[in-house]
Amino acid sequence: MESGAATLREIHSQPEVWSRCLDTLDKLDLKSLFGNKDPLTHEWIFVGCGTSYYLSQAAAATFTALTRSPARAVPASEVLLFPKLIFPSDEAAYFPVLISRSGHTSEVLQVAEFLRLRGVEFLAVTCDGNELTELSTRLLKLPVTEESTVMTSSFTSMLMALQYIAARFARQDEFVNALHLLPDSLAKLLRIYTPGIEELAQRSFDDVAFLGQGPLYPIASETALKIMESSSSYAQFFHTLEFRHGPMSIVSKKVLVGALLSETGYAEESAVLMEMKSLGGCTLAIGNRLSSEIENSADLAIELALAVPELARLVVYVVWGQLLGCCLGLRKGLNPDSPRHLSRVVTLVD
Ligand code: F1P
Predict the structure, then answer these.
(1) Is residue 242 assigned to a domain?
(2) Around Cβ 232, how many Cβ atoms within 10 Å?
């Protein structure tokens, strides 16, 4: 198979995959998954590794915003190494959500065993299934199959599913309706902006920094990870306004600064991107509505123009970094389908 073919196919398949997942969710008896684990009475703690950890962060932000009950996200390793930091109280009611595309990642399985030994029920969210499906009676398995090592459609589908659930808890049917608009919107945006991403990937960068605030911070993190994984390039991620506090010293014409611009913080966040452009950086702007100054100054500007709530846009923001990482890897003569040093699942031998 041609280098990167599986990864590119899976990135471009997301409109159809999202439609299929939404159909599955519409038919699900969500109550059977959660019973009395209402976010109003239980602290939901999302747990994952790598891409699935950033997914956890975006899911926790969504739950907190929609249900107005604080939710957290932690890497699986933190539960194993510092359990008292994660579960400080013996009396509090926690509801962990373990997220793993493969359902085979050692750290996640070890967390599942840790919880079972303590009688803590949890929800398992997966695509492939494997051992994780045997460890919990509460299971959300999505109809997503990926061949490639890096997670793309599995990331967006599992995040969308968790957003769907949060909206149901919050009784926000208009949010659920908004999610149903995304497959068609993404298909159109991919037709419009794929050439621009492919062109940007022809340039070589010494460093890449992706910026995001609020629920877009985990999306910026995942974007940088996609670029690291798919192209073996150096990429970093920061809260947008934090970039001024030191990291911006890296900016030059060989540095790409990508900003995932929110609606809430647009004025402050776009000012950072304009400053990085004035320092000579190469800039990529992704936002729902872009001002003319950003449109005219950015090396590539992607305007999503989605008529959906801000939180429902998260999965569309990440697609451009998935594509850019894959195109950068191909331009470097690598094969993003099997990235250097990486395996599809991280298994730790005892
Ligand atoms: C988690 C993970 C991915 C990473 C790579 C190896 O997998 O670390 O985040 O991109 O694919 O596995 P999973 O637990 O979600 O299967």
Answers:
(1) yes
(2) 17
